[in-house]
Amino acid sequence: MLRREDITEERVNAWIADGRRLGFRHFLTREQRETSRRRTLARVGRNESVWIFGYGSLIWAPAFHFAERRPALLRGWRRSFCFWTQLGRGTPKLPGLMLALERGGQCHGVAYRIPPRLVESETEIFWRREMVSGVYRPIWVTARTSKGPVRALTLVINRHHSLYTGRLALDRAAHHIAFAEGSNGPCRDYLANTIEHLHDLKIPDRELRRLWQRVLDLRAQAGMPHRSETHAGP
Question: Is 102 a catalytic residue?
Fold first, then answer.
């Protein structure tokens, strides 16, 4: 699980250096990340909270401080395994897949409220964690919660990025998730954790469960354990 103390500028620089040694060039500089953050938050007042909508690992490992957490629904965007990871959950030879939001459908997730006094520090951590490669685009959306709609910041896929996969067949996506492993662990753990925590929140996602079942089938066919340390609910 990603911890707050793991998201320092020094750790990020070391991670980028590892990537560059492997030949990767798609990294944003610290200045580019800060420009993106400032531009995105330009209309947030000094006394305003910032809501962040999470749909993947932010559900189970946000790593930033927040004052409130609510299940939320985002319409017009869907959760999708649509970009490659060749370091954290995969390798250049067998990249893993990560989640982003793509247009169409809807997505159940979690909205976090960062109070005004923490907006600066916690959005710095958020950008440092999520905006290293530029594969995401930060946008403002309306997330619906049981206490009413909130204006929230979320991350959608940058379809022009070199890591964007486009639409993948189920078996191809499942193969990479089933067998890819990187410095942050097996890619299948990322999927299993997401499903498990969605289940805990009573949030269904049939597409993720269908993908998980195919991951289990492929690992069984390969004679490998079908589960790692995590599981995907009952």
Answer: no
